[in-house]
Amino acid sequence: MPISSLAFLLEEAAKNIRRHSLMSFAALGTVAMSLAVFGGALYGIYRVNQIVSAQPRQLEILAFMRVKTPRSETLTVMQQIQKLPLVKSVNLVTREQAWAHFVAEDRLNKTNLTTAFTGNPLPDRLDIQVKNPHELGAVADQLRNQTLFPQIKSVMDDHRLLKILLAGVGLLRVVGGLLAFLLFCATTFIIHNTLRLTLAARRREIRIMQLVGATSWFIRLPLVLEGTFHGLAGGVIAGVIVLIAANSISNLMSQFQSKLSLVSVSTGNPIFIVLLLAVVGALIGMGASLFSIRRFLARA
Amino acid sequence: MIDLQHVSVAYEDIYALRDVCLSIEKGEFAFLVGASGAGKSTLIRLLYHGQLPTSGKVIVAGQRVNELRPRDVPYFRRKMGIVFQDFGLLPDKTVFENVAFALRVIGSSRRDIRRQAPAVLEMVGLDGRCDALPSQLSGGEQQRVAIARALVNNPPLLLADEPTGNLDPETSKGIIDLLHHINLRGTTVLVATHDQIVVDCFRRRVIELDKGHLVRDEEGGAYFNADIQPSVPA
User: In A72, A245, A265, B19, which residue has its Cα 20 to 30 A from B162's Cα atom?
Assistant: First the structure.
């Protein structure tokens, strides 16, 4: 294709966008909104997935020793647990450390709970991390076995919560994937419909182009460029909307971060989101315009 | 230039054209006449591959129209100019842009456009209205722009489907005069019309269709032939 023709096509695409500014604005707005919903859903799924996937590493078993257990025995139990094949690591929190932490918290929160105690009532505690989060329950059950570990008074584990979380992740992946797919289809359909309106508005121009001998690619290219532009620009706008929304939610979440220590609230890579939505938008715009024009020309 | 051999066009069981044989030589000027529904527009559409025949052969400018591949159709259409009753101008482009558009879409250079578009506009008598929009022109002027656009790449054939349908008799004569002038420069011209005044005034070859049949092909004819009773809708 000669450079003059390419320049003409680009010029025509730009002119058409300007001349049909209302239609362009409608197309751009529709694409941006659809992609923002699509991108938001996708990003939401990604973030929840990320948060949930991080939970098992943070979940651990807390084993509380009997209060009067000597430190040497606690260390022996610690070594025994460390040798268990499913255990990744064991960390001792001494009763003194626990008391110091309790006092600090008490002072910070001004609850004056420590004044009710004459001495340190807290036991030594073993914080146990397992190799596989799915084995959390099995390890906790082993530690509860009083024949094996008579020095352990109680065991706290979050395997029920973990089970719910893992089931939730599975469900979220299926439902989220389906939702993202449906939104993708809806976005494509909306762009296709908007382009059909644009094509109907330019029926005369296309008919004249056909009659004066324009090749089908010459007719298609400005319209494909327009569709791609709408998709690209809509994708960038949607990316920015999703970013702003994600940041606002993250800021809100960070206020609860100390209380909800299980939830990490980084926003991920912002440029990645904008780029992804821009590329998805451009591809949808290009694909939908090619499809619409093909059908239109076949009928013309 | 145009050769139709036993051409029929049927829409299910209704025939728009039936067994039409017709030949128009290079450089000829012919009127295609007939009442509404006689098949004039169908015949014109056949010539620019706007429609395919149900049977028979259509040969235009040496090419078998019904055997063209879709990708060859645009190149085939560059060999002819087409003018319609509704002018078919782009309302948001100026006179010059409308004419230049026909050159631009076939990939002509800017230099060629600057050379050819003003020349053809001068030929149709619109060299002073280059910057006007179609809405600022009269019907006759708009049809002249359409003719200029059809001719700007010097096609050997000009097809006009009811070019005077929207014009008053005086302006119609002016348009046919222009087409006649174009024909004198060597372009084959076929005009489908039911405008009795212009046909009778110019007395050129008349091809008459009636209910899809070719009923008359007469050199220097009038709109009505005394030998044939025209079919007039009740």
Answer: B19
